[in-house]
Amino acid sequence: MLCEYLLSEGFRVKAVFNGEDGVEHALSGEHDAVILDVMMPRLSGIEVLREIRKQSEIPILMLTARGDQVDRVVGLELGADDYVAKPHYPRELVARLRAILRRNSAAIAPKADLLTLGDLEVQIAARRAVCRGVHVDLTATEFNFLVALMRAGDDVTTKDILSLQGLGRARQSYDRSVDVHVSNLRMKLEACSAGAVVVETVRGVGYRLLAGQD
Hints:
The chain is α+β, with helices and mostly antiparallel strands. The chain has helices at residues 2-8, 19-26, 45-53, 69-77, 90-106, 140-152, 159-167, 177-193, and strands spanning 34-37, 60-65, 82-86, 114-117, 120-123, 128-131, 134-135, 157-158, 197-202, 206-211.
């Protein structure tokens, strides 16, 4: 039913029905995005996500059980770009999928193509982040968050703004997606820069990117 709905919305769709085939097709280079169910035979969706992220930054939208916050948080921590809870509304899923594809293919309309902060360099059109000459492996959503934070300069970027610019949707008060993506981004930036680039939490407001001390 989901395939039929996506086809009616103009998507080309390939459906596979176990985790092992899912990994193979996701890494084939033939697809623009992955809709990944958590409950699958052979390999679970979480295991599939882990295997895909070892080799690819392809956008991934996860389908999770409505009450299972654990799967959602774990999925985001492992690099999923967004999630939709089951049972889902097909129109919402398509809207989320289109938002992911817009962010990934068109990038964020650049005011400047190159952003720098200390040893960190972001090439927007190429969707590439480099720190001290080394490529920083970011998911599509993490990259969008990084661009938003760098463009803000010394100003604090609110969670609402990050959700709109990074996830393409308004933030809900109970939604931890922004926090988890920022946490992942923070760890990657601090690791690659040895603490020279840090994401500061401004409690109750949002986040700010700073050039720290080595």
